[in-house]
Design brief:
CATH class of the largest domain in chain A: Mainly Beta
Shape of chain A: flat
CATH architecture of the largest domain in chain A: Sandwich
Mean pLDDT of chain B: 93
Shape of chain B: globular
Largest sheet of chain B: none
Order of helices and strands of chain B: HHHHHHHHHHHHHHH
Number of helices of chain B: 15
Helix content of chain B: 55-70%
CATH topology of chain B: Cytochrome C Oxidase, Chain A
Number of domains of chain A: 2
Radius of gyration of chain B: 23 Å
Number of strands of chain A: 9
CATH superfamily of the largest domain in chain A: Ctag/Cox11
Strand content of chain B: under 5%
Order of helices and strands of chain A: HEEEEEEEEEH
CATH architecture of chain B: Up-down Bundle
Distance between the termini of chain A: 68 Å
Largest sheet of chain A: 5 strands, mixed
Low-confidence stretches of chain B: 1-12
CATH topology of the largest domain in chain A: Ctag/Cox11 (Pfam 04442)
Number of strands of chain B: 0
Oligomer: heterodimer
Strand content of chain A: 25-35%
Helix content of chain A: 10-25%
Distance between the termini of chain B: 32 Å
CATH class of chain B: Mainly Alpha
Mean pLDDT of chain A: 82
Radius of gyration of chain A: 25 Å
Largest interface: A-B, 47 and 52 residues
Number of helices of chain A: 2
Structural class of chain A: alpha+beta
CATH superfamily of chain B: Cytochrome c oxidase-like, subunit I domain
Chain lengths: 197, 527
């Protein structure tokens, strides 16, 4: 123990503790970019890049020995009134081959809006090997009222993908940004709950 | 209730300040604040308990029988929040306030006014939280874990929930800084760290845990708040965020939190078992190191709450092995308690009964915890009643039983009277039998696939649910007896000796019973 009085030692302890508190509050927020970087590097959690990938080098890179099944899934967040489905639900591809598939999208609401479509890949450790050279998910997609269009995604499977991965699922979720996509508390839904008796 | 009059003539031993309201509102005395914390915890135990009774009443029979499902969801969510932040944490903080200064020979806590402020934030936080029950849309109903996006669909209660969590977090952080500062700076001469009672050790480590993780929870709920009102997208996939990230941040807080709820219990049991065994604690230093290694391990195991989110194999393996490692230091503790009892001259007063029940039933909860740690089987157990049974064994027969043991153990020191031993034994046996009737069948329900947080269930679960509900009502009613025993002991009873228990060791037992308002103004010397 030092010669300092109890008061000044206590003050020092408290100051150190407060530093820890501030530091850990910051740590909580630092986990946000750290999480992104970690997922980007490791490919954990099905991290999918939103940047266009370069085209595969040449036809020589195509792995003719095996094929990978690619499945396509489309979901509309919050069950909004949209039509959103892949034209092809499943494709057998050779690693290194470039393919394009189309997603049928229709804004069935009577107003202009903007959507953002977020990709996800399962299994998570395959996400680093599915490269999209062109995708509707790279930018926000404006839609006029009742507009319908087919949107392309061009992709290839990296030949470096593990031999054990035979199926990759590419899933898209459509968010309607006009409403902020966060519904307010719904009195009618609450009414439904209480009438469940 | 600990007011003393017999030494009011002594100028150096002031009694409490005059005036009932000013005494309790402005008190900076660690014993008064300990009493306030404990009374508050007891009140919240009954508020949370009433919610549990509603849950068990609804589940008594299959079908939507009593309350509407939305209200049922509010009850499960609020029951957890009230019990964790209102009953167990303030209960332990109250014990720390009362006991740590008298166990280390300090005159009071290091920061008495901070102590008062930390306590009075609690009722403020709970006014915010409980007020949500009367709001349009009701109180939080998405689970105490507050996962987005579900929690963002909460109505007017949302900001109240967030600010209540902020206030309760600030309260427990201030309380912990105070406790750590007291333990590090106010020990009596000769009271080295390795001579401290284990309750003090446990709280020193718990204090550090609270200081380290409560700010992380505050950060997480602040992100929820800005996502909802200020257009950020921390957890919204549409804006590039990730709802799974909330679970990572939440459980980085949440897993240390469950040990915050149990480490002080280890300290309490380590005080009670040697007393009634009339032997020193077996393996004191290994107890300290085991507690410290638990405190380290629990920072790297949060992922075991999230096996089902789609974690890669390597992540599952890491979290599974790390989690199972926690069983090693915990096992050291269990075996040390057993070795302490081995060949001791044991007597079975109520605190000892609760402590033995703690060792036995906490181990049951620990073993189901090891089962849940196994990633492959966790996918089946996840979100079933097996999980409910597991954490109620560690929290009710663990944390709550240890608080009850502590109350019986130190009540004579606080009030100067012995509690009614016959009623205490009744309370113990009623509680222990009913709590097992309540929670043991839930293991079977969970293994058979009954999901948690659902107001209705398939017909094949009816019998076990009815048994469980009967146990629940019996356990709830038994706690009224606990209140009566405390009231009776405060009012009067057989005069307690200074030592109270035959085998009691420690500075607090050198004080008169009841302990005077001010103690150890000149520090004792510890050999």
């Amino acid at each position: 123990m030092s010669d300092l009085s109890v008061e000044s030692r206590t003050r020092r302890t408290v100051a150190k503790m407060l530093l820890v508190v501030v530091g850990m509050f910051g740590f909580g927020f630092a986990m946000v970019p750290a999480y992104q970087v970690f997922c980007e590097i490791t490919g954990f959690n099905g991290f999918v890049s939103l940047q266009p990938a370069a085209n595969p080098d040449s036809a020589a890179a195509v792995d003719t020995e095996r094929t990978v099944n690619v499945e396509f899934v489309a979901t509309v967040n919050e069950s909004r009134p949209w039509v959103f489905r892949p034209e092809t639900s499943r494709l057998e591809v050779r690693p290194g081959e470039l393919h394009t598939v189309y997603f049928v999208t229709e804004n069935t609401t009577n107003r202009d809006t903007v959507s953002q479509i977020i990709p996800s890949v399962a299994p998570g450790n395959a996400s680093r090997y599915l490269h999209k050279t062109e995708c509707f998910c790279f930018t926000e997609q404006p839609f006029e009222a009742n507009q319908s269009r087919k949107m392309p995604v061009t992709f290839f499977i990296d030949p470096a993908i593990s031999e054990r991965t035979t199926t990759v699922t590419l899933s898209y979720t459509l968010f309607d940004l006009r409403d902020g996509d966060a519904p307010d508390f719904d009195e009618d839904a609450a009414g439904l709950h209480s009438s469940a008796l | 209730m600990s007011a003393t009059t017999h030494d009011a003539h002594d100028a150096h031993h002031h009694g409490p300040p005059p005036g009932y309201l000013t005494r309790w509102l402005f008190t900076t005395n660690h014993k008064d604040l300990g009493v306030l914390y404990l009374v508050f915890a007891l009140a919240m135990f009954f508020v949370g308990g009433a919610m549990a009774m509603i849950i068990r009443a609804e589940l008594f029979q299959p079908g939507l029988t009593l309350v509407d499902p939305h209200f049922f969801n509010q009850m499960t969510t609020m029951h957890a929040l009230v019990m964790i932040f209102g009953a167990v944490m303030p209960g332990f903080t109250g014990l720390a306030n009362w006991l740590i200064p008298v166990q280390i020979g300090a005159p009071d806590m290091a920061l008495p006014r901070v102590n008062n402020w930390a306590f009075w934030l609690l009722p403020a936080g709970f006014v915010l939280l409980l007020a949500t029950l009367f709001m349009p849309g009701g109180s939080p109903a998405g689970g105490w874990t507050m996962y987005p996006p579900l929690i963002l669909q909460l109505g007017d209660a949302f900001p109240f929930l967030i600010f209540a969590v902020h206030i309760l977090g600030i309260s427990s952080i201030m309380g912990s800084i105070n406790i750590v500062a007291t333990i590090l700076n106010l020990r009596a001469p000769g009271m080295t760290l390795m001579k401290m009672p284990l309750f003090v050790w446990a709280w020193l480590i718990t204090g550090f845990l609270i200081i380290a993780v409560m700010p992380v929870l505050a950060g997480a709920v602040t992100m929820l708040l800005t996502d909802q009102y200020f257009g950020t997208s921390f957890f919204s996939a549409a804006g590039g965020g990730d709802p799974v990230m909330f679970q990572h941040i939440f459980w980085f807080f949440g897993h240390p939190e469950v040990y915050i709820l149990i480490l002080p219990a280890f300290g309490i049991v380590s005080a009670i078992i040697p007393t009634f065994t009339r032997k020193p604690l077996f393996g004191y230093s290994s107890m300290v190191y085991a507690t410290a290694s638990i405190a380290f391990l629990i920072f790297i195991v949060w992922g075991h709450h999230m096996f089902s989110v789609g974690m890669p194999l390597s992540g599952q393996l890491f979290f599974m092995y790390a989690t199972m490692l926690v069983a090693v230091p915990t096992g050291v503790k269990i075996f040390n308690w057993m070795a302490t009892m081995w060949q001791g001259s044991m007597t079975f007063e109520t605190p000892m009964l609760f402590a033995i029940a703690f060792v036995l039933l906490f181990t049951v909860g620990g073993l189901s915890g090891v089962m849940l740690a196994l990633a492959p089987v966790d996918l089946q157990y996840h979100d079933t009643y097996f999980v409910v049974a597991h954490f109620h064994y560690v929290l009710v027969t663990g944390a709550i039983f240890s608080i009850m043991a502590a109350v019986y153990f130190w009540l004579p020191k606080w009030t100067g009277h012995m509690y009614d031993e016959r009623l205490g034994k009744w309370h113990f046996w009623l509680s222990t039998i009913s709590v097992n009737v309540l929670f043991f069948p839930q293991h079977f329900l969970g293994l058979a696939g009954m999901p948690r947080r659902i107001p209705d269930y398939a017909l094949q679960f009816a019998d076990f649910n009815m048994i469980s509900s009967i146990g629940g009502f019996a356990f709830g009613l038994s706690q009224l007896l606990f209140v009566w025993i405390i009231v009776k002991c405060v009012r009067g009873g057989e005069k307690a000796t200074d030592e109270v228990w035959e085998g009691a060791k420690g500075l607090e037992w050198t004080l008169p019973s009841p302990a005077p308002y001010h103690t150890f103004e000149t520090p004792p010397t510890v050999k």
